[in-house]
Write a structure and sequence with these properties.
about 200 residues; mainly alpha; 8 helices; globular
């Protein structure tokens, strides 16, 4: 087994461990304390401008934007394998997210929500999708023949979206921090599992 496979398997184990630890710890006192601490920390930067900016950023992984982005993928990505991979991962992330939401059935923190959201809270769909969707674009960007300056510029934007979108969900009070961390961990696991399976086929 080569080093790359070992790293991927280790990553899968770590991320799934984080996800299941949180999933089985819902409503435990230590998780509640952590969620409260993370929310209070996010509110230390609460200003009208921050709220306005975070509402815009969080919309970049909303249903409307996601549908538009997927349509653009079909139209402008010429490589069939890359296009199919993006669509497959997007479908898997959404499907798994909705199944887990129904199983866990964790209510949202409605008393602190700054924007209206419906459905269950765990895990965060925005966190899952932004990590998978923008993460794939970042991966393909690094592999592309684009100039170094363009890679740095676009890569920085993608990294900021991957980091900031999950943070906005905590700041806006539509998710607990544990929802977000679990969402990112599950999404990372899906990407690594797919990559590992795809590597075996190659």
């Amino acid at each position: 087994m080569n080093k790359n496979k070992i790293i991927k398997i280790a990553g899968i184990i770590v991320f799934l461990t984080i996800f299941f630890f949180i999933a089985f710890s819902i409503n435990k006192e230590y998780i509640n304390r952590f969620d409260m601490y993370a929310y209070d920390l996010s509110q230390t930067i609460n200003t009208p401008f921050t709220t306005f900016l975070f509402k815009i950023i969080t919309s970049l992984s909303g249903v409307e934007f996601v549908c538009l982005a997927l349509v653009l993928c079909l139209l402008f990505i010429k490589n069939k394998k890359k296009r199919n991979t993006i669509l497959l991962i997007a479908f898997l992330v959404v499907l798994i997210n909705q199944i887990v939401k129904i199983i866990i059935a964790r209510p949202r923190p409605e008393d602190i929500m700054m924007i209206t959201e419906i459905g269950y809270s765990f895990p965060s769909a925005h966190a899952m999708f932004s990590f998978a969707f923008y993460g794939m674009f970042l991966y393909y960007l690094l592999q592309s023949k684009m100039s170094k300056k363009k890679k740095i510029l676009m890569g920085t934007v993608l990294c900021l979206l991957i980091i900031l979108i999950p943070i906005t969900r905590i700041y806006l009070g539509v998710h607990f921090a544990s929802d977000v961390i679990a969402g990112v961990s599950l999404s990372a696991s899906i990407l690594l599992i797919y990559s590992l399976l795809n590597e075996k086929k190659a």
